[in-house]
Amino acid sequence: FMADKGNYRHFMAKEIHEQAEVVGRTLAHYVNFAGERVELPFDLPFDFKDLNRISISACGTAYLAGLISKYWFERLARIPVEIDVASEFRYREAPLEPGGLALFVSQSGETADTLASLRYATAEKQHTVSVVNVPTSTMARESNVVAQTLAGVEVGVASTKAFTCQLTVLLSLAIAAGRARGTLTAEDEKELVNALIAVPGQMTEAMKREHQIEVLSRELSKAKDVLYLGRGTSYPLAMEGALKLKEISYIHAEGYAAGELKHGPIALIDETMPVIVIAPHDSIFEKTVSNMQEVAARGGRIVLITDERGALETGLDTMATIVMPSVHPIVAPIINAVPIQLLAYHTAVFMGKDVDQPRNLAKSVTVE
Ligand code: AGP
């Protein structure tokens, strides 16, 4: 097999740009477009109604997809979700009720810690569901249910299209769980499914911010440290933004829950450290705005990723505001993944780094 970069300079650029297509393809497997409902392409050996909780484990970007889905499962299906990085889960001897659901997320399906967690869950008599991109992988073989992402081969070490496809599958599962548990009405499901159906088009729209982001990345490349902030599902996305940037540009970056700012990281704010705030206009928007005001009052330079309404309502001076299309708040993290990926990519390219093959990193970590 020989992967092809097409007209792109790097696999990562190609994979970022492919997302509307592969998310659409993944969606077509999980959603009945005409029926406006989720239809899972497999049978589940359990009923969501009978679950007391879901335990999720994964590593890196796949873990952050899992963390976003915690918000979805809890909000839409009212199931408590416990989530851990797999390297912790595998050793902490978590008590698991037999017949519970253990969920794993992995692009490769070969990550050593995630596989070990899957084996632990199997030994503890859990139903195991793995969201994987490689259907022939070890994790796919050893799981009760394979929830495949149809991202196609991902070559860039920095995961991009696998992440947004994982989110697509996880949101479909959360909607299915909400229906089974009676926490979503047929009307609610329609609304959510239509929000999902709109995602590929909105991702294409989001790509149109690329030139602005490329210009901005020149500024970012001068930074020694970058702080990413967000609330709700934008919080795991802030961590994903920081992970992407540090992986390929080697700039130190941290992702924080915006509400944690005053519990420590605010001490770092000065004119030299860019603060990237992810704040779509949702129910907690005002809370994030007040955190931004705290940053601005200390001379911090803000890059705001928001939507049309958010941009109108902040009334703050920012270093840059990236205005995303207005989308249903539930799918916002899928769309907002695009600008954070582009920002990391262009910063690293501008700095002359090897974005597809960053130093010290392997595409899949098959040894502990
Ligand atoms: C993402 O950009 C990373 N390279 C890394 O965190 C990755 O997501 C992690 O190693 C998990 O890999 P997997 O999805 O193949 O299990």
Structural account:
By secondary structure, this protein is an alpha/beta fold. It has 14 helices and twelve strands. A five-stranded parallel sheet has the order 4-3-5-6-7, sandwiched between helices. α2 (19-30) runs parallel beside α7 (161-180), α9 (199-207) packs parallel to α14 (332-350) and α10 (210-220) crosses α14 (332-350). The chain is globular, with a radius of gyration of 20 Å. It catalyses: D-fructose 6-phosphate + L-glutamine = D-glucosamine 6-phosphate + L-glutamate. This is Glutamine--fructose-6-phosphate aminotransferase [isomerizing].
Q: Outline of this structure?
A:
The chain is built from 14 helices and twelve strands.
The Rg value, from CA coordinates, equals 20 Å
> Distance between the terminal alpha carbons, to the nearest Å?
27 Å
Quick one: overall form? globular
Strand order of the largest sheet: 4-3-5-6-7
* Helix-strand pattern: HHEEEHEHEHEHEHHHHEHEEHEHEH
What's the total number of strands?
12
Low-confidence stretches: none
Q: In DSSP terms, counting alpha (H) and pi (I) runs of 4 or more, how many helices?
A: 14
The helix-and-strand class reads alpha/beta
Question: Please, what is the average pLDDT?
Answer: 96
Main beta-sheet strand count, sense and barrel state: 5 strands, parallel
Portion in beta strands: 15-25%
Instruction: Provide the helix percentage.
Output: 40-55%
